[in-house]
Amino acid sequence: xxxxVPVLTIDGPSGAGKGTVSARVxxxxxxxxxxxxxxxxxxxxxxxxxxxxxxxxAAADQDQLIDISQHLxxxxxxxxxxxxxLLSDRIVNDRLRTEAVSVMASKSAAIPAVxxxxxKLQRDxxxxxxxxxxxxxxxxxxxxxxxxxxxLDASVEERAQRRYKQLKEKGESVILSRLFRDxxxxxxRDRERAVAPTVPAADAVVIDSTHLSLDQVVEAILQxx
Length: 225
Ligand code: C5P
Hints:
This protein is α/β, with parallel strands linked by helices. It is built from nine helices and eight strands. It has two domains: 1-31 and 129-225, P-loop containing nucleotide triphosphate hydrolases (Rossmann fold); 35-128, 3-Layer(aba) Sandwich (Rossmann fold), CATH 3.40.50. It starts with 6 loop residues before the first strand and ends with a helix.
């Protein structure tokens, strides 16, 4: 079915610049874009709205998270400022980007049944003429047959600095040392989890963006494509 449609996967840890790079690459190729982080963030937002706590280990809360993932009413539409993410028909772009949602998303994403429930929604984004898929497990789990796989990395110091700037620009009050600590913690959780850890696919090209500009990274990926 979708198998003939080309996919370019861009995986890597948070703050490596995947979001901006993926949007630029998709625009240059004229392909669709899947921001899979937004899918996990949408689950997290809905869970927080329903009063779930990121620290809860209670079985009933985990069941509720799984239920949210199975019935997620999520869509993407072209918006004034790129792509709008709609959760139950409400635009939630800004609400998805808070630190509270980041923490909840990373914790929910470690639950295998949550990941399983979100697979179809992500694979359905594979639509002609092609898809650029941004995430952690795009090349390893969701689209293992992707034609081009990139793993975009950067030092944790650089990633924390980038995220700090981003949040500041949005008017969120953040403390760099705390952001750095939370990022290390989230990296560890994403990398060491049993299912779909953030690791490069065996056939991925690894690009370290620590000392590269956005243009240089986009150019390098377009060369591969
Ligand atoms: O990429 P972004 O920071 O928006 O992702 C938020 C969280 O969602 C990550 O910390 C990660 O735990 C989870 N995620 C994932 N698999 C993906 C994309 C995101 O587990 N493909």
